[in-house]
Design a protein that fits this description.
Layout: H1 2-30, E1 46-53, E2 56-62, E3 69-77, E4 83-89, E5 94-97, E6 106-114, E7 123-127, H2 133-139, E8 142-146, E9 149-155, E10 162-169, E11 175-183, E12 187-193, E13 199-208, E14 217-222, E15 227-228, E16 235-236, E17 270-271, E18 280-298, E19 312-320, E20 333-339, H3 353-360, E21 363-366, E22 374-384, E23 392-393, E24 395-402
Length: about 400
């Protein structure tokens, strides 16, 4: 009987113990984080100053000397009325307001908060932000007729995250978005193609990640006739004084430039040997006389080769309607001076998905002198992304108007 009582007593003790543990666990889940230490709100910030900026402002202040100060937060509204909160830690004396579009006065509330979840009274601060960078970008937009469509270019000196939207007016009298470019590069351009050689109204607007959007600018442009040159007519050709340089032993010969193999699992493209000395030229016969509107180059995008290694960064293209040319540039017609630009503008060794998508789709270069018919081409390679001499191009295509 005594043993039974002891067992029952122990059972009751265990039940009480586990009940307490469960109660404590539930209480802990319902009240996470710092327990209030007091109910005294912190002091307000002082000595507030404002530096208005495009799309926002930087607010500086002196933080209160409360030992348990946790943060300072700013409460403001976006252009569409959305209420925003921006917090800065107790170790900072600045807070950045961003996401505003138009330039107009707004009263910001600055509130101090402590570890006991107390908050101070609000300090009202007036800011007068400059217009969002998207408006400056819109002012730089240029639209010009191009082969098969329109060439849109712009400048983004502040490297803001923007979306440039190109639309076209349809037969139903409505604009339809045909291209969206997500970028933060300082210089940008996009070729919108696939249009007949007739007048089309194109429109451009710019927005940011907070959905602030500019007005739309539009222009009626007559697109230029364009056709893709037949790559089966391209052949190896070099004049006196410009010998071929290629990695024939590795299969990276000039013919790989136009073999139509766009799969990066294929046998590669054309390459200079690493013993080459830049600047250097290579030549080819496109087998047809044409006014070239653009050149599309597919860089080597396998592995860690993109925007490094032998991929071409700076080059020129020259042409001639006849084969009576040599190493002397005076016998050639200048077609354009080109430079490959990484869309993201990121540092060396950093490649974003935007960069990958842009490069693997082929990079278009609009020919400056598109009025002169040519058949023989000279690529003058000035610089590679990696700085070495082992230039590599995966594939090349030419577009324009064939004259014969």
């Amino acid at each position: 009987m005594v043993i039974i009582k002891i067992i029952n007593f122990m059972k009751n003790i265990l039940i009480i113990f586990f009940s307490l543990c469960l109660f404590y666990s539930c209480s802990e889940e319902s009240e996470r984080g710092q327990y209030p230490l007091d109910s005294v709100p912190p002091k307000t910030v002082s000595a507030v100053s404002v530096e208005n900026q495009p799309g926002g402002a930087i607010i500086s202040y002196t933080i209160p000397d409360d030992e348990d100060l946790l943060y300072v937060k700013a409460i403001y509204k976006l252009d569409d009325g959305t209420v925003m909160e921006q917090k800065a830690s107790a170790y900072s004396n600045q807070i950045k307001i961003e996401g505003l579009g138009i330039s107009q006065s707004q009263t910001i509330q600055l509130i101090s908060g402590d570890r006991s979840k107390n908050e101070s009274e609000a300090v009202n601060v007036e800011i007068f932000p400059l217009e969002s960078p998207i408006y400056d970008v819109l002012n730089t937009v240029s639209m010009v007729s191009d082969f098969g469509g329109v060439l849109v270019s712009w400048a983004n000196p502040l490297r803001s995250n923007i979306v440039v939207t190109v639309s076209a007016l349809g037969e139903d009298g409505k604009f339809t978005e045909v291209q969206n470019v997500y970028t933060k590069a300082t210089q940008g351009k996009v070729n919108v193609r696939g249009y007949l050689p007739e007048e089309t109204v194109f429109a451009v607007s710019v927005r940011d990640k907070w959905m602030n959007r500019t007005d739309t600018i539009s222009e009626a442009l007559t697109t230029l006739f364009e056709e893709k040159l037949d790559r089966t007519k391209f052949v190896r050709w070099n004049p006196s004084g410009i010998p071929y340089m290629e990695l024939a032993g590795w299969g990276w010969t000039i013919e790989k430039l136009w073999d139509g193999q766009l799969s990066y699992a294929s046998a590669g493209g054309y390459s200079f040997p690493t013993t080459a000395v830049l600047p250097a030229s290579f030549t080819m016969d496109i087998g047809q006389t044409a006014c070239l509107g653009r050149i599309k180059i597919y860089p080597r995008a396998t592995g860690a080769q993109l925007y490094t290694g032998g991929n071409v960064k700076k080059f020129q293209v020259w042409g001639s309607p006849h084969p009576n040319v040599n190493a002397d540039f005076s016998n050639w017609v200048f077609l354009g001076d080109f430079e490959d630009v990484k869309p993201s503008g990121s540092a060396a060794g950093v490649v974003t998905q935007e960069d990958i998508d842009f490069a693997t789709a082929g990079v278009d270069y609009s020919v400056e002198n598109s009025a002169t018919p040519v058949r023989y081409l000279r690529f003058y390679i000035e610089k590679t992304w990696g700085g070495g001499a082992g230039m590599q191009i995966f594939e090349v295509e030419f577009y324009g108007s064939i004259t014969k």
